[in-house]
Amino acid sequence: MNKLLSIAKVQLMMRVTSTMWIFVVIIQPILFLIMTLFIMDIEIRETYTMAAILGAGMMGTWSSILFSSGGDIDRERRWGTLEMIVGCPTPLWYIIGGKSLANGFAGIISMTLSFLTALIFFDGRLSITNLFWFIIVLLLNIISLSSLGMIICTLFTISRAARGLMNLMENPIFLLCGIMFPITILPLWTRPFSYVLSLTWGIEGLRMAVMGIVDYQRFLFHILMIVLLTIVYLLISAKLFLIVEKKAKKEATLGVY
Amino acid sequence: MIAVDVDNLVRRYKKKNVFGKLKKEFTAVDNISFQIEKGELFGLLGPNGAGKTTTIKMLTTLLLPSEGSANIMGYDIVKDSKKIRNIINFTFGGDRGLYWRLTGRDNLRYFADLYNIPRDIADKRINEILKLISMDKRADERVENYSKGMKQRIHIGKALINDPKVIFLDEPTLGLDPVGAKDLRRIIRKLLELEKTVLLTTHYMFEADLLCKEIAVIKNGKIIANGKPDDLKKLVDNETVLEIEVFGINQERINQIRKLDFVNNLMVKTVEQSQIIQLYLKETENIINRIMDILRDVEVKEIKNRKPTLEDAYIKLVGGNNE
User: Fold this and answer.
1) Which UniProt keywords apply (chain B) (predicted)?
2) Same domain, B264 and B115
3) B257 and B242 in contact (C-beta within 8 Å)?
4) Are A6 and B57 within 8 A, CB to CB?
5) Last-in-domain residue among B228, B248, B263
6) Which residue positions in chain A have pLDDT lower than 50?
């Protein structure tokens, strides 16, 4: 646990120097929240303020993971620390996993700031019906997105060309996961993409916990989907980490940037 | 007991084009073999690009060898890389490789965690290390405020964090001022008192002469000489070195001197405004007139004769002709 906290501490201390990170974790979610609440009718706003806060919070989480985890290995390489950490007995997947979790938990900052913004500037229903399940689903979401972050990290390390896709991957995920509006209004062919993203199930699970769980079977199915998809993400990332480490040791790219 | 055993190690680099086809292949380390006794400070010397860093990276399990094998304390660098990482540590020259937003102490603490050292042991050890590297008073400042020498000392501190049996130091004094380099050499000598086995790469010959018990000279990936520093110095025992300090000599004159039949080798060093021509001579009689004849229009500041050093032996081995 000490090790994980240490990795997370170093990650956050180094990330707070990035203006991009500050923008995606702090400014962007607040802007999104304000924009969403202004678009809503006053009557709808009363009911859906919490849903907008959840959207803003998860937006911050995903952006933090995408832009931080996506470049974590590359940043370590640039700092000259990648060889130092690869040469340690702690496996690289564990270190990057710890960093990814720190990136994910940064999303709590987004959610808290969004909540405070709504509390100060907007009226609306700001309560959570089922706090216990809300915390469980939030933690599962963060862990799940962090494991997705590990896949992104390895993919962007294997292919430098893929890094160019980083900016393109932000907004489509918001749309596909239903952060902005329900996925039911999207064309049917987009549905499979939505379903393999754990955030689709996660954001809906959070909304249920906030609004009140009417159908527990449906709610638990959402949790099951998050857990299953997280396991799949972890298995894929484990395989990718083996490839990355072997490739780097073979092609001598650990110290090259 | 043998701590490091390198046997016919080879490392080739392949360059591929955008379609993945092999464009170029070159051998960075070519069939090298050497052994380091436990508790010994072994120097791997060679010019830039000779293969020193590639060798260290293979021995520290960061790079896979193309052929050959190597053992660290009996563990194979390919098959037993996880076990090796627990008993070795390393530093690479330069001021990268640290987290500049963290303090020196936090950097060491972070690496202590990554080396699975329990917190209570780590805290005690970090304090001891900080004293050893004379950083105990500046340990709680951020690395970004450190000088190059201080960063390098923290690197050495990091290399001691897991109390390793074998330490690899890749050009640790690179880019340091003379005082900083001297201080670092003092720390390296202390590692031997701690019974560590050290592999040091450097291209500062006096440093190797001062610190190393055994030396291997590497050039174009091949070990071209090895032995004790005194053994290597014997290679130039029968030579004399003449140093001529001049102002504004041109290449044509240098070539004329080089062609003189009594000149074995020639090196030119530029020091501020002047150049120092180092001549390695087969004979010393009646030579000054012939040299001065070539230097007739050149301002000569000083001429001196000296005994060959390890650096001279090194120059003879690697065949350098300019700095």
Assistant:
1) ATP-binding, Nucleotide-binding, Transport
2) no
3) no
4) no
5) B228
6) none
